[in-house]
Structure formats: structure tokens, C-alpha cells
UniProtKB/TrEMBL annotation:
Coiled coil ranges: none
Molecular function terms, GO-annotated: blue light photoreceptor activity; FAD binding
Annotated Gene3D superfamilies: 3.30.70.100
Domain BLUF: 1-94
Organism of derivation: Oceaniferula flava
Name of the featured protein: BLUF domain-containing protein
Pfam families: BLUF (PF04940)
Superkingdom of origin organism: Bacteria
Stored InterPro entries: Acylphosphatase-like_dom_sf, BLUF_domain
Amino acid sequence: MHLIIYISDYTGNAGQISTDLEDICQTAKNRNPEHDITGLLFYHNGNFLQAIEGEKAKLESLMAALERDPRHEKITRVVDCPIAERGFSDWNMDTFELEESESISRDTLHAYKKTFTSQMEMDSAVFIESLKSMSQDRNLRAIVVS
């Protein structure tokens, strides 16, 4: 089992994001189960943060497809490591919107990763709970993908 968390910049206009998120949600709902990939997608102020988990080869194939997706650019992996177990095994595709708030920069995410990984072994469930907590604290817009 493997976990990849990346950040990227949305390339569309703000008026198109709801349509793009619906399309992303539907595509993930259709494709991810057959590849046994689960994950979580956050969108906030023109940025995506996505956590995906599954077999490493399948995640790399998905990442290759995501890197060709014109809806985002500047894809940066924040976490790319083996994990003991899934954090999303019983989650269905859900969409929820939260209010806008301050931005989360790449530097903030890299600092978060460094602090997290230096203090404990990477555990998907713990890291995912941290992301969920961060989303509530930062009032992000999120999609849960499984």
C-alpha cells in the first residue's frame, strides 16, 4: 500500500471550478474503484491538495494521467511513501463545501510534512485525520474520493 499527496494550481477560471469539481468527482467515482484507489481532494483559492492511496504502480499510472490534465499545473508531491493501511477504505465519493479562508502555501505544506514525518512513522489514518482537521480549521472546500 502506498500514499501520494500532491499540491497543484488550478488553471481554470473561478466561475468554472464547480463544473470542473463535478467532472473530477464523476471521473474518480467511475475509475478509482476498478484500480482500488481511494483518496481525498481539497480545493481552495485556486489550489488543489490531493491524497491518493493504493498500489504504487496504479498510483503512478494515475499520477501520469493527472500530470496530463490541463485543469491544473505545477504538480508537487508533498508525500510519496509506503503506508501500513488505508485511511479511506470505507469512504464513498462525497462532496462538501466550506467557506473561503486564508491560503495554504506550498511552504506551509512542506513544513507540515517535515514536522509530521520527523515526529512519527507515516501512518495513513493519522495523516488523513490531520488533513481533515486542517480542512475544518482552514475552511477549505473538499471532495472525498473512493
